[in-house]
Amino acid sequence: MIRKRVGILISGRGSNMKSLVDAARDPGFPGEIAIVISNRPDAPGLAWAAGEGIATQSIDHQAFPSREDFEAALQAALTSARVDLVCCAGFMRMLTPGFVSVWHGHMLNIHPSLLPAFKGLHPQEQALAAGVRIAGCSVHFVVPEVDSGPIVAQAAVPVANEDTPDRLAERILRAEHALYPMALRLVASGAARLTGGRVVIDRPTGDAVLFSPAPEPPRSG
Ligand code: GRF
After folding, report:
1. Are 111 and 137 in contact (CB under 8 A)?
2. Which end of the chain is more exposed for a tag (fewer CB within 10 A), N or C?
3. In this predicted model, what pLDDT tens digit does every residue of 152-207 receive, in sequence order?
């Protein structure tokens, strides 16, 4: 098996990056983490990855006169690490259409909502404000529009009466940590393919139903 070389882009704590790193420790995983790059030199995730012996690079966007100059440095780092697939994991920079087109079909992002609902900032707050009973997260191929693009995989979690944005975010984050490695596995192995703007997956989807609230148990007697 040829393992795809994966570059992970982060801006902060990097808990999703950790879940990808952990998954890729399995020699049977179809991807290996070639490099972790942060646009914020002080991102806690960057120090963690370096401590794990993973190649890291800090590319401070503030040091560049334009978005294009920043992205040229990003592209150079990804190329020199011979990256095949890019995973954005809490990477808080908008990417230009030019950069996105170079990685078309080879760049993933994770967003803490069931897309196409609640794009952009504070999706958990948006979900609570909308009163949905089921929230979740999505892994999708990156296109120029933010939090859009063909969806590879989604995970759903129930919304509880007493949820605050933080509580809901924690529940979704646990789902993210399971979802992102699964989605990367599908893409890196070739089981998930982009066809006509949609993702086709060579794998049964399952037919489990998530109810929220849960259906009442049958009455006895
Ligand atoms: C996650 O909720 C991710 O879905 C969103 O930003 C957050 C990053 O968290 N894009 P972490 O840095 O991976 O812990």
Report:
1. yes
2. C
3. 999 999 999 999 999 999 999 999 999 999 999 999 999 999 999 999 999 988 99
Half-sphere exposure of 181 (CA within 13 A, CB side): 21
pLDDT higher than 70, residue 221: no
Token representation of residue 212 = 């929220």
What pLDDT score was predicted for residue 172? Answer: 98
pTM: 0.96
Distance of alpha carbon 143 from the chain centroid: 13
Task: Give nearest CA residue, ligand 1 atom 7.
Answer: 90
> Which residues in 22-91 belong to E strands, given as ranges?
31-38, 56-58, 85-88
- Span between the terminal Cα atoms of the chain, in Å: 57
Nearest CA residue ID for atom 6, ligand 1: 90
Active site residue 140: no
Q: Would you say residue 126 has pLDDT above 70?
A: yes
Mutate to test the pocket of ligand 1, among 15, 19, 174 (most ligand atoms within 8 A of CB): 15
Q: Is the CB of 31 under 6 A from ligand 1?
A: no
Residue 204 CA to residue 195 CA, distance in Å, equals 17
198 vs 161: CA distance, rounded Å: 35
Give the Å distance between the CA of 13 and the centre of ligand 1: 8
